[in-house]
Design goal:
This protein has about 325 residues and is mainly α. The protein has a single domain, classed as Up-down Bundle (Formate dehydrogenase/DMSO reductase fold). About 80% of the residues lie in helices and about 5% in strands.
């Protein structure tokens, strides 16, 4: 059971890292029609995320692989129940990658590829939050763990609010990243900083509204013990991140504002994990919820995975350190 809990934490950690890193990629792409007006500004935006976006997506694959190997029933239920939503996410990520490559070699169709770049980033950014909102609210499961609802059934008020909250934080991430990466004094950098200020307010409002709806409509009881500790920790980090983001934005310390918005993303995942623990997917019936104890792989499998993770994760972190260090600094907007 100890290894099962460890891998529940690892999966949540992988999701949080993906949320932070690919969040600013998606957010920058969503903001591209509003912030990057000229071809030089569009080139600067792509240059700010170009060296890192594909490496950031690896964390999503890693999270999915860890869920598959460590907690296979949860993987089966989530990937089958959210099948259409997951396919839309995958198509969105594929379209984003294709549009990024093609716009650089097809000047005639750049407007078309820019539109796909925006759409391919907007859809995943929205649906990630919707999926987590459904896991938190609960979905109808059969006795064997199969999802018995429909795609429309996943679009309730609370999941949609979670989707909007996730979208808001991702756009804030993108604006904070661009404000920290684009050369100071340019109109593009000023637009990014202004967008960051607006989205910080929007995020604060959505946090309050989503919390009220959670207690009023969902009514999921808060946990005890380690779960309650996680919730308290998440609330503390969330408050610090929101307040710190406002302060850093006012002072113009762009990198600190980016770290503050990243803290908000991490806090939301901690709150999610603490709220569902020890369950992974909450059931509204007639079947039982999928919890850590029933979903975990054998101790041997989890032990082998733990050894591999202790070797592989540090190597990936070293890779990211080298890449971000190599491409550090602000980017000039050329004519």
């Amino acid at each position: 059971m100890t290894l099962a809990i460890l891998w529940f934490i690892i999966v949540m950690l992988l999701i949080a890292v993906y949320y932070v890193l690919d969040g600013f990629d998606l957010g920058a792409a969503i903001l591209s029609p509003f912030i990057a007006k000229t071809e030089g500004e569009k080139a600067a935006l792509h240059k700010s995320i170009g060296p890192v976006w594909d490496g950031n997506e690896v964390w999503l694959l890693t999270a999915g692989g860890a869920l598959f190997a460590a907690l296979p029933p949860a993987y089966a239920t989530s990937f089958s129940g959210f099948y259409l939503a997951i396919m839309l996410v995958l198509f969105g990520l594929i379209i984003r990658a294709v549009s990024t490559e093609f716009r650089a070699h097809d000047a005639k169709w750049r407007g078309f590829w820019d539109a796909l770049f925006f759409i391919g980033s907007l859809v995943p950014a929205l649906l990630f939050g919707v999926a987590l909102g459904n896991c938190l609210q609960g979905i109808p499961l059969a006795a064997n763990g199969d999802y018995t609802g429909s795609f429309i059934g996943l679009l309730g008020i609370f999941p949609l609010l979670c989707g909007l909250l996730g979208l808001s934080t991702i756009i804030t991430q993108g604006a904070s990243w661009l404000a920290a990466k684009i050369e100071v004094g340019t109109q593009m950098q000023a637009r990014a900083a202004h967008a960051r200020s607006i989205m910080q307010v929007v995020t604060l409002v959505l946090v309050c509204v989503t919390t009220l709806v959670f207690f009023a409509a969902v009514g999921t009881p808060l946990g005890e013990g380690a779960s309650m500790v996680a919730i308290v920790l998440g609330v503390v980090i969330l408050v610090i991140g929101i307040i710190g983001g406002f302060i850093a934005g006012r002072k113009g310390t762009d990198l600190k504002a980016f770290f503050a918005s990243s803290a908000v993303c991490v806090a939301l995942i901690i709150l999610f994990a603490g709220s569902v623990f020890p369950d992974i997917i909450i059931s509204t019936g007639p079947g039982p919820s999928i919890d850590i104890a029933t979903a975990a792989s054998s101790d041997l499998s989890l032990t082998v995975m733990t050894v591999i993770a202790c070797i592989g994760v540090p190597l990936v972190c070293v890779y990211h350190f080298i890449v971000y260090r190599t491409f550090r600094g602000r980017i000039a907007v050329e004519e």
